[in-house]
Design goal:
This protein is of the alpha/beta class. It has 2 domains: 2-41 and 289-426, Methioning gamme-lyase, C-terminal domain (Aspartate Aminotransferase, domain 1, Alpha-Beta Complex); 62-280, Aspartate Aminotransferase, domain 2 (3-Layer(aba) Sandwich), CATH 3.40.640.10. It contains 13 helices and 13 strands. The strands form 2 sheets. The protein has a 7-stranded mixed sheet, sandwiched between helices. A hairpin with a 6-residue loop joins strand 10 and strand 11 (369-374). It starts with a helix and ends with a helix. The structure holds pyridoxal-5'-phosphate. Pyridoxal-5'-phosphate (PLP) binds next to helix 5.
Length: 429
């Protein structure tokens, strides 16, 4: 058993931990079948989109200056539009992050006096700063005269009845966050998103609906844009970049909306026609090609992480048999020291920066100190195995990504090995 030998002798995993994890792995494997089915479908969907738009090697060349006639850029955007089943898309290396893509979308569509309603409760930390709900950053949406409202989730589902009541003549956009973010709830499934959109559209057929699709891409055969969302928004250093994209963000959706957002990104009248890609198109598209497979690996890894710590008595979300709609596995430790240990182990399992130790830190846009473990080839990439935890009650660790299941498995074993320092864990093994 060479594998057991390298894990135990070279990575210092004890036989107890090794056997424990292998046993849990046997139990969770029954859930792999569905993940593989979705992966296969999405892989073909991506290949088809590339063929349909006649992707060729010259699309990987790049120009200088304004980036007029950048065929690669145009192909990337057409391929994303096909994959997300939308009229158009904006996919750029100049979109610096997911937060930037979301801000760009909101500021492109909303005007002074317009209302935006989050119908999936409190949004992601950085979005609160963007909306002007937290802090007072110049350029936030409140400052621009945009009114923000929120409808909390009800039973982990969109409360569409309350959402309908909140809509006024001024409401232009509804936003839905698919992923958990830093809350402790399962991500909103495509079925829940579909149902809410249908119910709201019966009353308000023309209201715009945007989905923050971060961490959700390729987890289901359908994307939110397949079930009625006008816009889907995300980051290329999460799922759709497959660990290969170097940076960037995307917005896919209705053409009239993409045109407005593009005018916001560049300038009115200039829109999508300019913007140099700096040679990024090959990585962006190769990343998209990798993405369905990579997402399936991350999901299997999330199951293993969840399975191991759940069996040790910790509360996890999503649970093992719950339908997944993002790549995140949240584990509630109720103990700051354990959170730090888990993050240290993830760091130690990394191919890059395995020798450094993460520490809690103040991060721009976040309210509490956050500890982040990541040893990634692409800095900040959270489709690569990473863990982060805001240092606050109830001390939940959010584990995400993993380009390869084997890597996540190493992370699980190393973390459990470190957790043996706690008597209450050791006694359970
Ligand atoms: C990651 C994330 C964002 C922001 O993305 P960044 O690239 O980190 O700016 C927004 N919403 C959700 C749900 C996310 O997971």
């Amino acid at each position: 058993m060479l594998t057991e030998e390298i894990l135990c002798k070279q990575f210092g995993i004890s036989k107890t931990v090794y056997n424990y994890v292998i046993n849990i792995e046997k139990e969770i494997k029954k859930n792999f079948e569905k993940i593989d089915r979705v992966r296969e479908y999405n892989q073909y969907k991506v290949i088809k989109a590339m063929q349909e738009h006649r992707l060729d090697f010259t699309n990987f060349y790049w120009n200088t200056g304004y980036g007029y006639d950048d065929t690669g850029r145009e192909k990337v955007e057409k391929i994303f539009a096909s994959v997300f089943n939308t009229e158009d898309a904006l996919v750029r290396p100049s979109i610096a992050s997911g937060t930037h893509a979301l801000y760009l979308t909101l500021s492109g569509i909303l005007q002074h006096g317009d209302e935006v309603i989050s119908i999936s409760g409190r949004p992601y930390d950085t979005m609160l700063t963007v909306l002007g709900e937290q802090g007072n950053e110049p350029g936030n949406l409140k400052e621009a005269g945009i009114v923000y409202k929120e409808v909390p989730l009800y039973n982990n589902d969109i409360d569409w009845e309350s959402a309908i009541k909140e809509i006024t003549l001024k409401t232009k956009l509804l936003m839905i966050q698919r992923s958990t973010g830093y809350s402790f709830r399962p991500a909103l499934t495509i079925e829940k998103i579909r149902n809410a959109i249908e119910k709201i559209r019966e009353v308000y057929p023309n209201i715009y609906i945007m989905v923050d699709n971060c961490y959700g891409e390729f987890i289901n055969e359908y994307e939110p844009s397949d079930v009625g969302a006008d816009l889907v928004v995300g980051s290329l250093i999460k799922n759709p970049g497959g660990g290969i994209a170097l940076s960037g963000g995307y917005v896919a959706g209705k053409k009239v909306l993409i045109d407005r957002i593009a005018n916001r990104l560049t300038a009115p009248g200039v829109g999508k026609e300019v913007g140099l890609t700096f040679g990024t198109t090959r990585n962006t598209l190769q990343g998209l090609f990798f993405a369905p497979h990579v997402v399936s690996e991350a999901l299997k890894g999330a199951l293993l992480f969840g399975g191991v710590y759940n069996s040790l008595g910790f509360e996890i979300t999503p649970t093992l048999d719950e339908e997944r709609s993002d790549t995140i596995q949240a584990i509630k430790f109720n103990n700051e020291d354990m959170v730090i240990k888990i993050c240290e182990a993830i760091q130690a399992a990394s191919p890059v920066d395995s020798h450094v130790s993460p520490i809690p830190w103040e991060m721009p846009g976040y309210t509490n100190k956050v500890i982040m473990a990541a040893g990634a080839f692409v800095s900040g990439s959270s489709i690569e195995l990473s863990a982060d935890a805001p240092i606050r009650e109830p001390y939940t660790v959010y584990i995400q990504g993993g380009l390869f299941y084997d890597h996540v498995k190493l992370g699980v074993m190393l973390s459990l090995e470190k957790m043996m320092d706690f008597e209450e864990i050791k006694n359970k093994l």
